[in-house]
Design a protein that fits this description.
Number of helices: 5
Largest sheet: none
Distance between the termini: 27 Å
Strand content: under 5%
Number of strands: 0
Order of helices and strands: HHHHH
Shape: flat
Length: 131
């Protein structure tokens, strides 16, 4: 058993003891959100547009975080709409600021594999993440 697996089991046991069924549901939501973040990193590394991938995954994570295991429909709806408004406002602010600060020039300093270059991509191998 690796250290990470032991820590995951300790987290699971703690959440189960503290929250019972709700702790179990929260742990499943946490695992699902981690999977979504991992998939988004892989998609961006494969060359998909980072802004579109991030927006889609942000909505998926919001849905899981707000609605997963929540029994209060109206409160969850208000929280979801508010979170979508905040994400939309951030996107409206980020895009012009990125253009104004010329953050795209930083791409020259980032390794090719992080920009989505397919030259180092080996299908079926995870080595593209560590090159």
């Amino acid at each position: 058993m690796t250290t990470i697996m032991a820590l995951i089991l300790i987290l699971f046991a703690s959440m189960l003891l503290a929250g019972g069924r709700q702790g179990f549901v929260s742990f499943l939501g946490l695992i699902f959100n981690f999977g979504i973040v991992f998939i988004s990193v892989v998609l961006i590394a494969m060359g998909f547009p980072y802004l579109i991938v991030t927006l889609i995954n942000a909505v998926i994570i919001l849905v899981v975080s707000i609605y997963f295991g929540n029994e209060q429909g109206r409160n969850a709806d208000v929280a979801f709409i508010t979170a979508l408004l905040v994400v939309g406002l951030l996107v409206i602010l980020i895009i012009p600021v990125q253009h104004w600060l010329r953050c795209k020039d930083l791409e020259l300093k980032i390794p090719k594999i992080l920009r989505g270059s397919r030259s180092n991509w080996e299908f079926g191998s995870w080595m593209f993440l560590v090159r």
